[in-house]
Amino acid sequence: MVRDSLGEAIVHYALNIRFEDLDQQVINEVKRRVLDSLGVALAAFTAEPVKIARGIARNYKSSVEATLWGTPNTAAIDWASFTNALMVRYLDYNDTYLGKEPLHPSDMVPTLVAAAEYRRLGGKDLATAIAASYEVGVRLCDAGSLRLHGWDHVNYIGIAVTVGLAKLMGLDENKALNALSIATVPHAAMRQSRVGELSHWKAAATANSSRNAVFATLLAMEGFTGPDAPLKGEMGFIRQLLANEFNEKIILELSSIPSPKRILDTYIKPYPVEYHAQSAVDAAREIRREYGKAIEPDDVDYIVIDTFKAAYDIIVKDPEKWDPKTKETADHSLMWVTAVALMHGTVELQHYRPENIRDPRVLSLIRKMKVNVDPELDKLYPSAIPNRITIKFRNGRELTARVDYPRGHPKNPMTDEEVENKFRMLTDGILTRDQISTVISLVRNLENLGDIRQLVKAIIV
Fold it and tell me: Is the pLDDT score of 206 beyond 90?
């Protein structure tokens, strides 16, 4: 029998949450995240790594299967989970949370949908599992930083999605704790996925954590046991990955939390860029509006971006971020996304076409930039996500804009209409207009959906 006070607290909490415990605001936010996840996934339907994964997944059949999103085809549930989660993550357009550790909580949505589909469960079951997994994932991010010790945030996804899976797959607390142990101990993911020139694996890392969680859950369902004390043990998660720098209280508080609410603290993205750069895009748009036209390299003497240390470490310091050659690196370059927004007034998916990534004008603007860590801005993070841009033009004019709370942040939230319009924009030309309307309607009424397969069938491209 696995013993672990933190694991036990997480499992007990997640397995005992009921749909009736959810506030209406939480239910509505779950719906928004489901719709947003479907939109960003379908927009990535033809991306190279997605096609590779989907092609392989079709070779793996099982009696435990789920649908490969956008197709009528099914695959073994672990492969379906991997492929669909890769779709959600690939464009770096899904939601985010920033605590001591950053996270993309909706990376978990495809895996939970797969479990609900396999079990033929309805919208209430799915919504409850999503809310519970978000609660666990966000609290883990507040309790300790994996990044500072060289480990990847997807390790938290593995824990949080496992308990949601355990809930949907009907595991008892003992089996769920074994699933958590099997998902956690053998699968420590390194942060090397996010430094230097970024590869396909950057978007696949959370998909792999989810796949591992599915594998662990299936084993535990049949009575397979995992290592004792996976989180608190002598060689366990907290000691090995966090150097014992972990606030257990934030997790143990779950025993006194009647309803999951932390999904309300997470952020939807209006732009397909790494979250620490969202406010820089907003600031660049303000400057461009004031300037009145596209900002070209010949107009500019120099550009200064003042930011905070986490942004500098993640999307500035690597030499590759100053000269991106791949989509994965460009969307993680503060300089590149700022240059694109200054030129085009926004950042859209079309800007990641290979010829646009290497646009000589964009690269020329980057060469005119200097990026500083501002101690005053750094003090505001992660409550705020502050970026300030100052441009000195060759005609002597100077423009500055600062944004602390980008659009989509809980203190500057996107409206339901904006979230639905994002879905329409992402799926235009991929789904028919009737399909788009049907999917929006199904998600709006998620709690009344008797079988989640209705939603999965509605997104066949």
Answer: yes
Q: Where are the domains of the chain?
A: 5-270+436-457, 275-403
∠ CA(453), CA(106), CA(211), 5° rounding? 70
Residue 1 has pLDDT above 80, yes or no: no
- Domain 275-403: CATH architecture, name and number where available: 2-Layer Sandwich (3.30)
* AA identity, residue 333: S
Please give the helix or strand (H or E) that residue 113 lies within, else none: helix 109-118
Distances (CA, A) of 391 to 76, 295, 336: 53, 10, 15
The residue among 255, 212, 180, 219 whose CA lies nearest residue 4 is: 180
Q: Mean of the per-residue pLDDT values for the chain? A: 97
The terminus-to-terminus CA distance of the chain in angstroms comes to 46
Classify domain 5-270+436-457 at the CATH topology level: 2-methylcitrate dehydratase PrpD (1.10.4100)
Tell me the pLDDT band of 196, cut-offs 50, 70 and 90. Answer: confident
Q: Which residues contact 247 (CB under 8 A, 6 or more apart)?
A: 142, 143, 144
pLDDT value of position 295: 97
CB 381 within 8 A of CB 331: no
Calpha distance 56→70 (Å, rounded): 16
Q: pTM (2 decimals)?
A: 0.95
The single residue listed with the structure tokens 């732009």 is 271
